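User: Second chain of the day. Same drill as before.
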Amino acid sequence: MSYAVEPPARQDPPRSRPVLVTLTAALLAVLGLAGLVYAVVTLAVTPGVIGRFRAAATGADRADVNGFVTIVWTAAAVAAVVAIILFALYVVLALGLRRGSNAARIGAWVVCGLGMLAGAGSALAVIVQRRGIQTPGTLGTALAHAYPSGWIGLNVALALAQMVAYVVIAVLLAASPGGFFRRPVVAAPGYAWPPGSVGP
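Assistant: Same format as last time:
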């Protein structure tokens, strides 16, 4: 008994990746790598900061000093963990963008919005902290002076650069051809019984 077989579904030609998408994916991956490098550098300088802070706070209450030390180490550790998670997320999103995944494009926009808010919050927090260390002799002042020269200014600059990078990524995504992120619907191959025939 012969069966009629439907012809295989037509395959669309492979889509070429737009240059804007390639740039967006690369910038997203670089942004994640930069955050990871910053977290590693923060962990590297923290022991020296703690040593200089303890030396400058010799006359202060040990419980207060230890409290500041705990906060510094906890912040550095949490920042490192978050940087690792974000780096992995950004790499996944970058690969998804290169493949033309619409979910990755939406995820990248969400990341950009949250990243701009986080960058603004970081810059504001550093500025407030900088204004609060003007009183000499306090533990906060001693801790701020224990960091390498220009560390606070560097943090503000990095926060602003982060915000600019997220804006650029969002603009590049908006300018990228939307058709690249629309996957073609391919019908699954199937079999049809000819009229008047019966199954096996």
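The radius of gyration is 27 Å.

User: Great, on to the next one.
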